[in-house]
Amino acid sequence: MYKISILMKKYYVLSCIIMMLFTFSHSVEAQSDIEEVLFKTYSGGGGKCYGRSMISYQFDTIEEKVILRPAYSYLREVPPVYRTETERILVEPAHTRIEVTPPKFEYTQQRIKVKEAESYVKTREPLNENDLFMKDVSVIELAPAYQRWEKTKRKKNCRSKKPEDCLEWQLVDIPAKKVAVDTKVRSSNASINTVAAPTVSAAAEYVTVSKKVLKTPASYKEVKVPAQYRTVSKKIVVEARRFERVQVPTEYKVFKRIITIREGGVMEAREVVCRSDYPRYLLNVQRKLKELGYYEGTLDGSLGKKTKQAIMDFQKDQNFALGQLDYNTLKKLGLIK
Question: How much is the pLDDT for 123?
Answer without folding.
Answer: 59
